[in-house]
Amino acid sequence: MTANGGTTEARPASGTLEEPQVRAMFDRIARVYDRMNSVMTAGMHHRWRERAADLAQLKPGARALDVACGTGDLALELARRVGPGGEIVACDFSEQMLELAREKATAFDVKAAVPHAPIRTEWANALELPYRDDEFAAATVGFGARNFSDLERGLSEMVRVVRPGGKVVVLEITTPTRPPLSTFYRVWFDRIVPTLGRVAGDADAYTYLPSSVRRFPAPHELAATMERCGLRSIRYVLTAGGIIAIHVGEVA
Q1: Cα 72 to Cα 104: distance, rounded to the nearest angstrom
Q2: Can you say whether the dihedral through the CA atoms of 147, 148, 152, 154 is positive or negative?
Q3: Which residues of the chain form beta strands (DSSP E)?
Q4: Residues 20-68: pLDDT tens digits?
Q5: Closest-CA residue to 87 (of 105, 63, 110, 107)
Q6: What is the rounded CA–CA span in Å between residue 67 and residue 124?
Q7: Which neighbouring-strand residues pair with 136?
Q8: Which pLDDT tens digit goes with each residue over 202-250?
Q9: Calpha distance 157→122 (Å, rounded)
Q10: What phi, psi does 214 have (nearest 5°)?
Q11: Where do the domains of the chain lie?
């Protein structure tokens, strides 16, 4: 979901929004965010988060960080994997998103059928994470890296807080290049998604979504960026016909 805002704000790339605008946008759409995700992905976004959590390769008892956690779905997947002896820290810059993440974590504690780690939700800036070097076994970001106002800085921060040998995982929407999926993708994101946004009451937010995807690096370009940020053994999985890319790299 989002670049976590804070006191230090990088200049956005051409065509992007300023950090305060992005933060305000996610505050506005927080209550419809999960519903819109399910509509736009036919519910598949949960499966993609499961695969991202698997790639983090967390062991029981580990501590992991989910950056730009949104309403907390990826954090819940991580919590299942580390078990009751571990801990998940879920951070975001949108207070409204964090409120929903806290509600989910509380409900999860009551209803979950399997032992799981506690989830600590807190406000944080993805470009200036308030955590120590080498503090976590892994760091993840699901559908948030494309909103970082400075992608390399955000990824470098994730690398910094993960100990050597740990994993950094990036789950993102990408742009398919081969028809017929590329044609469907353009129609869906450029026409249907903004229409859904108008129905949901925030056309601006769901016009921003396609533009944020279009300007995000292609999978091979993101892999190169991750390498520049200090990751090695980088690989990525394309799924949903090439619409979703899940990258994983190991901290050197």
Answers
A1: 7
A2: negative
A3: 63-67, 87-92, 119-123, 136-142, 162-173, 231-239, 244-251
A4: 899 999 999 999 989 988 988 888 999 999 999 999 999 999 999 999 9
A5: 63
A6: 8
A7: 162
A8: 778 778 887 888 889 999 999 999 999 999 999 999 998 889 999 999 9
A9: 16
A10: -60, -35
A11: 19-251
Cross-strand partners of 250: 167, 232
Architecture in CATH of 19-251: 3-Layer(aba) Sandwich (3.40)
Q: The tokens of 86 are what?
A: 């571990």
Q: How far apart are CA 137 and CA 167, in angstroms?
A: 7
The answer to whether 64 and 57 are in contact (CB under 8 A) is no
* pLDDT value of residue 13: 42
As given in the structure block, the two tokens for residue 33 are 């965010």
Residue with tokens 């949104």: 70
pTM: 0.89
Plot region of 168 (φ>0 → left; ψ -120 to 50 → alpha; else → beta): beta
Count of residues making up the chain = 252
Nearest to 230 by CA among 174, 172, 171, 163: 163
Q: What is the dihedral of CA 43, 44, 50, 54, to 10 degrees?
A: 180
